[in-house]
Amino acid sequence: MSKTNLSVKPSQTGEQFARRTASRLEQIQLQLDSSPRGTRLKGKVCVVTGVGSLIGIGRASAIQFAHEGAQHLYLMDLDGTNLPALKSTIAQKYPDVKVTVIQVDAADEAAISGVCKQALREEGRLDVFFANAGIATQLPLESSSAEVFMNTLRVNTLSCFLALKYASEAMMETNPSRGKEHSGGSIIMTASVAGIRAGAGSVDYSASKAAVNNMAQTGALQLTRTDVRVNSICPGLIHTGMTDTLFQSARRRNSESKIGQLNPLGRYALAQEIANVATFLASDQSSYVNGQNWAVDGGLSCSLPVVPGKFA
């Protein structure tokens, strides 16, 4: 039986596509500068972990939450180096948004319980918890160890469990005097396409993110009829502090334009594109989205391995 060709449109030349991609990424980087202030998170009290990287998802989300009118942001990272600058950046652009920065391990139970209690004490409510902190390893199976495996699960998975446990408790607290008449809130966890399919990460990393995806589903069910929603975001290849080594290596080889070529969009993504999804999930616009694992990967996980334009 002969192979059947699919009907596909002619692609642009490599140079044309590279120019178009560069232009698109520049537009994304500048999206908040050209967008008026929003109100999607007006009055909401939010916690975001893993905000330390200057090109990371946590930082991009914190700034976008402020852009959308969040009332108070509690921003956390294990590395406190860039926290003062992040607070200053938000204060300058969005002086109406309260910002509290905390240097802490997102897998520290006392710290996560404490920030949820702090939000209730200071603001009388907690509405959003974005459990974004995480680490990645690139060790092959034969070079890994039980210690590496357990540490990855501690940082990537335990941190999300603690957010689920303590944030949900805080979100179920009502406070009519602060405008919270009913239980409710949004818990968002950063997982990965590595938690959906093999091939995107090491064994320990992939296992930790698969657990996060399941936790979003199980957590949503456990919190039935509380109006506390739980969802995970599964990024594909994003340019962040975690992946910057890959991008630097590609630049040295003059092959940066090839990064992300395996997905249908043919490019990598920026942290702002994940922040867009996090902001939607944090807002009331996603009020009926619950227990889902959102793949934000340019279409990478939508297909089996095939040659474009042909049935395998």
What would you note in describing this structure?
This protein has a single domain (18-23, 37-296), classed as Rossmann fold (3-Layer(aba) Sandwich). The chain is an alpha/beta fold. It has eight helices and nine strands. Helix 2 (57-67) packs parallel to helix 3, helix 2 (57-67) crosses helix 8 (271-282) and helix 4 (109-123) packs parallel to helix 5. The chain has a seven-stranded parallel β-sheet, with helices on both faces. The protein has a two-stranded parallel ribbon with strand order 7-8. It is 38% helix and 14% strand. The chain starts with 13 loop residues before the first helix and ends in a 16-residue tail after the last strand. The protein has helices at residues 14-29, 57-67, 83-93, 109-123, 146-171, 203-222, 244-252, 271-282, and strands at residues 45-49, 72-77, 98-103, 128-131, 185-190, 228-235, 238-239, 269-270, 293-296.
